[in-house]
């Protein structure tokens, strides 16, 4: 049997994920906490806000499956978060804050 990625559902505090999340687009990453851009995928901490990256979300996950395999071997503690899920929840949280 080969080990493959299977999406699961787990409860998280969105704020906690956001403060330790690297989102990765086509060529570079962005810190979800302070929005620092042009980060490399392998960076462990944000050079700007110095938060540790515990979560990674790929904008186009299908383009990055080989990278996910490599990272999961090198940093087994990293949790991969679905980008669409994160964006949707982040938007809902923001809307809640505005209504408060
Ligand atoms: Zn940052």
From the structure above, extract its key features.
100 residues; binds zinc ion
Report on the structure:
There is one protein chain. This protein has helices at 14-19, 65-74, 83-99; strands at residues 21-24, 29-31, 55-58, 79-80. It is α/β, with parallel strands linked by helices and 100 residues long. The protein starts with 13 loop residues before the first helix and ends with a helix. The longest helix is centred in the last third of the chain and has 17 residues, at 83-99. Zinc ion (ZN) binds at residues 31, 33-34, 36, 46, 48-49, 51.
Q: Which distinct ligands sit in these coordinates?
A: zinc ion
Stretches where pLDDT falls below 50 for ≥5 residues? Answer: none
Kindly estimate the percentage of residues that lie in beta strands according to DSSP: 5-15%
Main sheet strand line-up: 2-1-3-4
Shape: globular
Q: What composes the largest sheet?
A: 4 strands, mixed
What's the count of strands?
Answer: 4
- Protein structure class: alpha/beta
Span of the ends, CA to CA: 50 Å
Helix tally equals: 3
Radius of gyration: 14 Å
Order of helices and strands: HEEEHEH
Average pLDDT confidence is 94
How much helix is in the residues? 25-40%
């Amino acid at each position: 049997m080969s080990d493959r990625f299977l999406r699961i559902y787990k409860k998280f505090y969105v704020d906690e994920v956001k403060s330790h999340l690297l989102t990765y687009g086509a060529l570079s990453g962005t810190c979800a906490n302070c929005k620092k851009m042009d980060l490399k995928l392998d960076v462990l901490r944000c050079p700007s806000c110095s938060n540790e990256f515990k979560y990674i979300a790929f904008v186009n996950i299908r383009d990055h499956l080989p990278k996910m395999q490599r990272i999961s071997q090198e940093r087994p503690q990293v949790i991969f978060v679905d980008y669409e899920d994160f964006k949707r929840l982040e938007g809902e949280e923001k809307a809640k804050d505005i209504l408060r």
